[in-house]
Design brief:
By secondary structure, this protein is an alpha+beta fold. The chain has 2 domains: 2-21 and 216-396, Sandwich (Tumour Suppressor Smad4), CATH 2.60.200.40; 39-211, Probable inorganic polyphosphate/atp-NAD kinase, domain 1 (Rossmann fold, 3-Layer(aba) Sandwich), CATH 3.40.50.10330. It has helices spanning 2-18, 98-109, 124-140, 158-168, 185-189, 197-206, 221-226, 240-248, 251-256, 259-270, 332-348, and strands spanning 61-63, 74-76, 81-87, 115-119, 149-156, 175-179, 208-217, 230-232, 235-239, 275-281, 290-292, 294-298, 321-326, 357-362, 364-373, 375-377, 380-381, 386-402. α2 (98-109) links the parallel β3 (81-87) and β4 (115-119).
Length: 408
């Protein structure tokens, strides 16, 4: 039975990929560093105020679009642009040539826009810290007529992009994305080209800024103990999604690669682990206990993130979180049927119509679970189980450069 299910899930995966669906990349952290370019491109060198001769085509366009106002408001600045590139040389695995990819980026952006490359070091937390230092350096500089417009660009998979994006939340610094991972979920959700480096660079050169939402995850005990919150740009999963990642990690992932996650999904669907949860929606009173095995809270997610599709489509700039809860508990048949309903919702972009799926759009939500559960945020699995989780939307906190033809 399980092998039949595995075959079915593999076929679904291939069909969705062929139709342009993207899936979240999990635990995508670079394992080694690559020094790129001149030594002066380290954080000790700050070329933010350097004068650069560029033509008018390199002026940045900034578009502000909200759900209530769909009209474009394009503002051209006379400031010259400069790109700070966080480049993950290991993105995409052995199928990609990192030197060739880096050369393609330089060819597409320079000489009109100078590019300074930063070594991505060893893991997502190091990338985030390095980018955070750069952001603080940019913010300390006074803005003059000769100050360049900084653009921070992330080139890699979803792990690299998430680490960089978290550092520029609520800074008004434009974020460019050059996807080079295997899933590229964030880029797919925002219609950023994923098949061609040249096209992604063209979006940075000629596109506009779209303000999209982020979220703050504050409830997990590890974050409460440290007194901080964890920014989120894609989704958080409790139960099914977190257990799938837990199953796929380690030796299984090294042997099977991405197929490990398909197997993890099959295992969790065929043997769901039910738990009880109570919700506190938008600061209101707690609900009664709900029996579930899967909770997904999404701020931005492509259609391939099936567990987030209770509402049919996750809107990245509506100022709301999309919450999908599967209430089918420990029934294998109902679990399979729920996934089928979510898959249908993702395809037709209409909300699910079944009593086994609870979906809502909220500004903030608190979740209390019994027993304690693991949590995965933007592909990173929590080290410990926790009882309480909370998420709050950060409306229009990211300024992401998207193609001019992209829907806002």
């Amino acid at each position: 039975m399980k092998w039949i299910s595995l075959l079915c899930w593999s076929l679904i995966h291939l069909v969705l990929k062929s139709q342009g669906f993207a899936f979240i990349e999990y635990d995508e952290t670079p394992r080694s560093a690559l020094a790129v370019g001149d030594p002066e491109t380290s954080l000790d060198f700050d070329p933010i105020t350097q004068e650069v001769d560029v033509d008018e085509s390199s002026l940045v366009n900034t578009t502000t679009t909200t759900a209530a106002d769909e009209s474009d408001s394009i503002i051209k600045t006379s400031r010259k642009r400069i790109v700070y590139l966080f480049f993950n040389p290991l993105a995409g695995g052995q199928e990609r040539d990192s030197e060739e990819d880096l050369g393609a980026i330089f060819n597409a952006l320079e000489p009109d826009i100078p590019v300074f490359v930063f070594d991505t070091k060893h893991d997502s937390s190091s990338i985030h810290q390095q980018c955070r230092e750069l952001v603080e350096s940019i913010q300390r500089r006074p803005i003059t007529t000769n100050t360049c417009q900084p653009i921070i660009v992330a080139s890699g998979g979803d792990g690299t992009i998430s680490a960089v994006a978290r550092a520029v939340i609520n800074t008004d610094i434009p974020l460019g994305v050059i996807p080079r991972g295997t899933a590229n979920a964030f880029a797919t959700a925002l219609n950023i080209p994923t098949e061609s480096i040249e096209e992604a660079c063209k979006a940075i050169r000629t596109g506009h800024c779209r303000r999209v939402d982020a979220a703050a995850a504050t409830g997990h005990m590890e974050r409460r103990d440290s007194g901080c919150s964890k920014p989120m740009i894609l989704l958080a999963g409790i139960g099914w999604e977190a257990n799938m990642v837990l199953t796929a990690q380690g030796k299984l992932k090294r042997i099977l690669g991405r197929l490990a996650y398909i197997w993890g999904g099959v295992k969790e669907t065929m043997a769901p682990k039910p738990f009880r949860c109570r919700l506190r929606i938008n600061g209101g009173e707690q609900t009664e206990y709900i029996k579930t095995h899967s909770i997904t809270v999404a701020v931005t997610a492509p259609s391939g993130s099936v567990s987030a599709q209770g509402s049919g489509e996750v809107i990245p700039d509506d100022g709301l979180l999309d919450v999908t809860i599967q209430t089918c508990s420990d029934s294998i048949l109902k679990s399979l049927m729920a996934m089928a309903h979510l898959l249908k919702a993702a395809v037709i972009k209409e909300p699910t119509q079944t009593d086994t799926i609870l979906h809502m759009r909220v500004k903030e939500i608190g979740i209390t679970c019994r027993p304690k559960q693991h949590e995965v945020i933007d592909g990173e699995l929590s080290r410990k189980r926790a009882k309480s989780f909370s998420y709050k939307v950060l409306p229009h906190a990211l300024h992401v450069i998207v193609p001019s033809t992209s829907s806002s």
